């Protein structure tokens, strides 16, 4: 028991040497805010525009909709990504959710896209299975035919 207590005391005494606190930010790391304009109306409408010295620009406006406290918003922001890419995003947030638009966002493939043959064969097999079931036939197969 004494060994366990002694081990715990040594671990606590050494713990401050194992953990290194993050370095404090230097004053030179601070980014100046060049513009910060905010307007909030009594009826719930709002608008704000902000710009920083490192090129971040953000703008948003919104207004209440209905009696439930919902707010429709629209806005944009832009900045330079760490890899140097210029990022520009516009968005709307309303009853249909958050809807961002930007060239940097991934895009789903256009539809209709080519359907793989194995999928087409499975669809055909399912149609045949449905037809057999409709005729009262019992299927003895559990999968689509294979191209062996």
Structural class: alpha+beta
Amino-to-carboxy terminus distance: 69 Å
Q: pLDDT average, as an integer? A: 82
Extract low-pLDDT stretches.
Answer: none
Count of separate DSSP helical elements? 2
State the order of secondary-structure elements, H for helix, E for strand. Answer: HEEEEEEH
Residues in β-strands, percent? 25-35%
The biggest beta sheet reads: 6 strands, antiparallel
Structure overview:
With 148 residues, the chain is α+β, with helices and mostly antiparallel strands. The chain has two helices and six strands, in the order αββββββα. The protein has helices at residues 2-18, 117-134, and strands spanning 33-40, 46-52, 57-65, 70-80, 86-94, 97-101. A six-stranded antiparallel sheet has the order 1-2-3-4-5-6, with no helix packed on it. The longest helix is centred in the C-terminal third of the chain and has 18 residues, at 117-134. It is elongated. It starts with a helix and ends in a 14-residue tail after the last helix. The relative contact order is 0.07.
SSE layout and pairings?
Blueprint: H1 2-18, E1 33-40, E2 46-52, E3 57-65, E4 70-80, E5 86-94, E6 97-101, H2 117-134
Concise overview:
The chain has 148 residues and is α+β, with helices and mostly antiparallel strands.
Characteristics:
single chain; 148 residues; alpha+beta; six-stranded antiparallel β-sheet; 2 helices; 6 strands; elongated
